Amino acid sequence: MSLVLLRCWGVRVRSGWNARDGAPIPASVRLQAAPCGQPPHPSPPTWQHGGVTPATHSTLFPQVPDAADAVLEGLDPEQREVATALHGPVCVLAGAGTGKTRAITHRIAYGVRAGILQPSSVLAVTFTNRAAGEMRGRLRQLGASGVQARTFHSAALRQLQYFWPKAVGGSLPRLVDRKIQLVADAAAACHVRLDRGELRDVTAEIEWSKVTQTVPADYAAAAAKAGRDAPRHPAEIAQLYAAYEDLKRDRAVIDFEDVLLLTVAILQDRHDIAEEVRAQYQHFVVDEYQDVSPLQQRLLELWLGERDNLCVVGDASQTIYSFTGASPDHLLDFRTRHPGATVVKLVRDYRSSPQVVHLANGLLAQARGRAAEHRLELISQRAPGPDPVYSEYTDEPAEAEGAARRVRDLIASGVPAAEIAILFRTNSQSEIYEQALADAGVPYQLRGAERFFDRPEVRKAGIALRGAARFGGNDALLDDTVDLPSQVRAVLSGEGWTSQPPAGSGAVRERWESLAALVHLAQDFAAAKPDATLGDLVAELDERAGAQHAPPVQGVTLASLHSAKGLEWDVVLLVGVAEGMMPITYAKTDEQIEEERRLLYVGVTRAREHLSVSWALSRSPGGRPGRRPSRFLDGLRPGSGNAAPRGGTVGTGGVVRGTTGGVEDVVRRVNRKPARCRVCGRTLTDAGEMKLMRCEDCPSDMDEGLYQRLRDWRAAQAERSGQPDFCVFTDKTLMAIAEAVPATPAELAGIPGVLTRKLKRFGTDVLAICAGQDVEGVEDEH
């Protein structure tokens, strides 16, 4: 039998067909080289809903169940059915907040603890490192350590690294983290000029092509059939795709899609290797199955072989990644492929209040298409909460300020900052909310930032704790400590932790938040295990780092709707929910519009209790108020019909007409006119130009000396508050001040970026500097 080798390594290639479903496997990735039926566990007869353990808000350190049957305690009847269906194909249709992760982790743990499943024979796959880490953490807490819980790419990469020398020879080529530079080089080789946006879009098209197993020559036809809106002419993208593949071959590198493609190729053509993998893994669990791509589905089929010990979990109404090649069809067709499958529906929502669930169900009730035909109507299991609040603002800056003010008030009322999230459609919306939160003195964290255990301060803290644990009583830091939490506080005080947080929301605050998370973790650990030592805590941290099971960090979360998938908060603010943004402008087809609806559904179902939905009538202050609330809200928000009303109600559940704060700020904003360049008179739309009050290309009459004095003063203010410089004023705002040289508070207030709060806090200093007076923080020589 011939072996498989990849063409790009200079070896012969043969084309082939997927014998199972007729789909072609690209020639560029086909390798060729030379020489026990466990019965359902009955529900307790005394079961009633009130006895079900909540699906969320579990303690950080629960007691490990002492027996297999104890693993099933606290599950509702449907979750218990999932947990005890350990053989044959199982399909779990799980709505948002219904405890799907809980059900499948208890299923694995019950099988392991009952001796039905061997931990090393189970492979659980999902789509993000965070989800895989959470799954490993939960399994460890249930006494089922040793189970492999990984992403598709991670599992494939391990197999590829292990089998590559045997299948191909030599070491696996280098894996590139980011392909965008390679795409840029391929464009240059083809003499094609791409701007930054086109470069990103072409890269996305190449990724889609590879996960749908489309070769360059077939791209145009495949893109047309899929209804993709190509960023360039399809023939040109096909040319760039081919050049990109050639460039990878020449440089002997592979990308993340190649990891899956190569693994598929090896398993498909080396039956001995495929059998070795199948001997290792005999039971598979796939989370978020609605997001599986054709390539991932093919890999899963090769892992399975002729067996059917497969459990899949998903919700077609949460399919939001079709642009990457994901399709809910694999989930919806599961019973067709597996006629004898056990199908369990989870609809008891333990996450969200009835008011939030009512809105979520209302969104899906208006949906169309195949996914909508299989929607799950959620039933809230929580006590009633407040109605969703709808807010309309004059412009986007006002909306951001309103959101920051609401967040500040919630924190003041006792809501932890870590239990609040601001969710938006695109990452480009983040900056204005970062600035608004910084202006309000609210700490925040960006979703998708550096992993917790990879942060420098966390690594240093781990070293310090490990050293203190090793030296024990010989460490002077521990002389006055009486318990584990006080020991941790003493050690981390040397790393920058203090009992009170620093002011502001800059890097100093972020470092403090990381250390504070370790302090809180130590307190929870000691409460769960009173006899635990510092060494025990260090071991716990090591296990958590290995599983990427991070403790919560205080700080409001800023995230896109896509990156918020799988997360939840007590309070969620959905911002920018207006036509053109939700649905996004480039969503043209019915399928694309429905995916936008599902994306909003995902955002709504992230909220446990408090939900705010807001939109702005214009992008910029003084702009034409031509926007309207998203069509998805029609008939759902009070007072709305087929057209958004211009009147409105104020109060819980109604539309709150947003303002930005005090009376003077309202007056100032109402009286604003469209921003125009003070040099040429052109209407300004770019945020940076609006701050400068002139076009970037128009000549500047900035007072360089004044600008430098303002920068020196800003640096002193930032250092004093522990914030980054831009949280005081951005460079553009300082340039605008140095150009305008305001003499009165009114003139200063007229400069974009100088909002009411900053005017009150910094106005006196700034006007004094503009007048040439000495202010603390400004060097005399300037």
Automatic annotation (TrEMBL):
One of its GO terms (molecular function) is DNA binding. It catalyses: Couples ATP hydrolysis with the unwinding of duplex DNA by translocating in the 3'-5' direction; ATP + H2O = ADP + phosphate + H(+). One of its GO terms (biological process) is recombinational repair. It holds the Pfam family UvrD_C. Residues 73-353 form the UvrD-like helicase ATP-binding domain. Keywords: ATP-binding, DNA damage, DNA repair, DNA-binding, Helicase, Hydrolase, Isomerase, Nucleotide-binding. Residues 700-780 form the HRDC domain. Its cofactor is Mg(2+). Residues 33-52, 617-651 are annotated as: Disordered. ATP binds at A94, G95, A96, G97, T98, G99, K100, T101. Belongs to the helicase family. UvrD subfamily. This is ATP-dependent DNA helicase UvrD2.
